[in-house]
Structure of N,N-dimethylformamidase beta subunit-like C-terminal domain-containing protein:
Amino acid sequence: MGRAVAWLVAAVVLVTAGCSGPVGGPKASPSLFRGATTKPSPARPAVEVENSRPGTTQWKLDRKGPNSAIEGYADRIAVRSGEPFRLFVSTTADGFRAVAYRIGWYGGTGGREVWRSPAMPGRRQPKPVVTRPLNTVTAAAWKPSMTVRTTGWPEGNYLVKLISTAGYERYVPVTVRSTDTSGKVVLVNAVTTWQAYNLWGGYDLYQGPTGFADRSRAVSFDRPYDDAGISRFMTTERAAVVFAERMKLPLAYITDVELSTEPRLLTGARAVISLGHDEYWSKAMRDNAIRARDAGTNLAFLGANAVFRHIRFASTPHGANRLVVCYKSVSEDPLRNRDPSDTTQDWRQPPDPRPESELTGLAYDCFPADAAFVVVNPRNWLFARTGVRKGTSFPHLVGVESDRLDLSYPTPRPIEILSNSPVQCGAQRRTWANSSYYTVDSGAGVFDAGTMRWVPALAHSKRFDARTWRFVEGVTANLLRAFAAGPAGRTHPAHDNADQYSHGGQASSSD
């Protein structure tokens, strides 16, 4: 659905390097993070060993500046360790360098430098290309700036920091993906959602120059991220990755693309963790997650609004699965007559409605939301050692989008409602928000936080007080530790209380 582009044959500047510090850096061991064990993997260092290496805070941006000052993208969303990727960089400066940081705990520093380029000549790349009629924006005329070798890079999430000679900085995210998830907790980067909100070039899946009508119907990974795009990792995923690594769990790392394209990848996985804002799902993503759940793999959704938009993938000149197609309207989708099961309206809408609650347990309900998280089921194992009682509340923890129990949609049973929060949704509507836990016959447990602010609380956002930080950390530690041990429903079966909260009411019996 595009045109051939000649820039794919452009010359590439080869850059090779590897930079890793010695083992022996700082690590924390408070009681919250004790109890998990890690078996070293022959394919990579154990997470505990990796995080004992010296970390740095230099991964943070010091001087962001305007997009045009320096920006770039990679021609691979995810690579296996040792595979190369190309960087496409545009800058108004006469030169730049690139530094790759692996994101993790590292004694609280948050990252480790694993590679840096030599000084590179800068160039201002051509303007964005908009392809009609889908209003797809790409950097189609850009020339590659360098090839990056990832030899020796451990699996994980990476931010490649571009630094211009003028001192401006921007990120290019890359995942060094796992090829084996057996026995591991799998962290999934929601790259399709990052791209859906990426307004670089003036178009995303929500708006174009005049608003919703001329939005993109397909968005490409062949372009840099703007602030709205990269913030999906920074604010709703990064802190959960750091927290999981701090717990020394056996971890694996993938993106939405691998979840969609590799149905056997989750074989033997202990848990799959949707890290935060994970809105855009393909049919194969959903099918593979359900298949894993029904084989005993636990699932956790550490956000809200998950599995809400139906997408499909297509190719770009850089390769397969680099175009996210989402018309948001069945009448516009050319598949409406040929394959109505894969048209790209919301999942809960006709012609083949499959509400998100079938997988998450809850239904997306509100934006904008701002409410306290109110505990109604304090005896649930997820709240162990948090000190909560029925009615304990945590101000502002529910928002800015929220989920709730809605039994008019298909809902797995037994499902246990953990919190019940009155919500004023915008200026007009009163509703409620929930968090939940359900179990299935395979023994798998499924948790839905029901709020987009769960991971920001793990990041110690100033929106919340320290009491809220400690609560979210305690629940998340209980969750990850149990999920890493195997099918959680075998030791922690859900005790159904859905009927008591189906209309937002408070349960009359003691929980």
About this structure: The two ends are 55 Å apart (CA to CA). DSSP finds ten helices and 25 strands in the chain.
